[in-house]
Design a protein that fits this description.
By secondary structure, the protein is α+β, with helices and mostly antiparallel strands. The chain has 20 helices and 19 strands. The strands form 4 sheets. A 7-stranded antiparallel sheet has the order 1-18-17-13-12-9-8. The chain has a 7-stranded antiparallel sheet with strand order 7-4-3-11-10-2-19, covered by helices on one side. A 3-stranded mixed sheet has the order 14-15-16. It is globular and about 60 Å long. The N and C termini lie close together (8 Å). The protein binds 6-diazenyl-5-OXO-L-norleucine. 6-diazenyl-5-OXO-L-norleucine binds next to loops.
Length: 575
Amino acid sequence: MIARPFWSLAAVCVWSLGTISAANAASARPVAAEKGMVVSAQHLATEIGVDILKRGGSAVDAAVAVGYALAVVYPAAGNLGGGGFMTILFADGRKTFLDFRERAPRAASRDMYLDKDGNVIKGLSTIGWLAAGVPGTVSGLEYARKKYGTMTREALIEPAIKLAEDGFILDQGDVDMLESATEDFRRFPATAAIFLNNGQPFLAGQRLVQRDLADTLRSIGKQGVDGFYGGETGAAIVKASRAGGGIIDQEDLNRYTVRELPPLECDYRSYHLISAPPPSSGGVAICEMLNILEGYSLRQLGWGSAQALHYEIEAMRHAFADRSGLLGDPDFTGNPSQKLIDRGYAAKIRDAIKPDKAGISSDIAQGVAPHEGSNTTHFSIVDDVGTAVSMTYTLNDWFGARVVASGTGVLMNDEMDDFTPNPGAANSYGALSGEANAIAPGKTPRSSMSPTIITKDSKLALVLGTPGGSKIITAVLQTILNLIDFEMNIQEAVDAPRIHQQWLPDTTNVEKYALSPDSRKVLEGMGHRLEDSQPANHLAAIIVGAPSLGGKAIGRNRYYGANDPRGGTGLAGGY
Ligand code: DON
């Protein structure tokens, strides 16, 4: 089932069924389904996921198939050469978190991106082989499948092989994605050979064939992780890395292992959040912000009111100050996660937030209360028995480091840019970070990725996540607030314009139409500095039971999916 404009045919039936209240905004209807739902950033990948569910596969099986498929049909962020996180809630209440994010190669060093004067060398951590961390995606997908899946590797990888081998017809959204990196592709012949059409950008209606990638997928299908980290593929990655000035060697590839961690959990009003622990900063920051905001009556203040926005901005400012300096790979740094998500800590921060005055970011000291002082992809899946998978994975920037090892079709990540190259300096999202996130061999860079699942009374209620660098954290937060506090339905909650504040720079980004002129005036009067911003997220969300929390089901449908209209290629689909 495909999303339709709310005011066409859907308006009539939903209205007369009385399933969605008259307070609804002008959003498309959420996509409704009875047995299973997949929301991903590329429609072909969504269809593959739905097909796996229909064939009796679990949400984990579908996630593995979608993960491989997006590596083919969404090459800007779907990947084999990157890494990510998977949050799983099983129908019986068990929950887990898989960290298959990249690790720094053994030869990495703290100052590898600095010149002799200690300045960061521009581009070194974002483009080319030295930018790449040891990829984790194939290990992650295989770990999930082996431990929690029910279907064979061959069955789950086969649809991706077919899409790579036969190619797929590019829509305008796919072409727009490729076109954004044309100049970078031209710098690397092995990349240009795949993503340019005889040196020119692809056009809508043309077919993108990736035969080398099909071969790599086939060898993973036959040999599992060894088909990627070992054999010809592993050797090709090591060879290309060495030739391109990188430092990944065979031993780095051999040593890669997935970490299975307890998720980061907290409560907000009557809901329970299950999200990403460090090395992500996402779960901690979202919980810290929710704890702060729980003390305000956002519902009464109203969505888009200057006062509600003021409290949201201040919560973001404080949580990002903590996130920026204190969080990193748990094997290397003692993350004060429990302190930061403590309700008493949040209460002290609330005491420091003035109701009528913007805070000053440079006055905020990290971890001291009261504080005085765009590319990735996410998909959400729920199956018939109610197991939910929330997975975000990435190459970091669009098309990662833009490099491919010849013969593999595998784009490599530039995840090393998520480390702090020079503690105190900003990464490409403008966020500052400290010692906790300094580079070290074998270490994982801190992430913002926040694949999240929410329950109520121990029952699955929501699955959500998004790309967007540091804006991941605030987009997930606002979607939760839109649903819980502002009582929107899932599509409205995803569509609603967003704001973003990340401590430094001390400006709040505002999407178009997020602020009415008078709200803007009130906020500026409080001292907030506001700046227009382009949409950065592509949220994928599923709600269980009804289109809105506590709402009424439409017919027999149990699942309602929302694809973010900010992306041009995604789809919510169910059966
Ligand atoms: O892990 C992280 O936080 C980043 N590498 C994510 C990058 C991202 O989301 C860019 N997307 N638009």
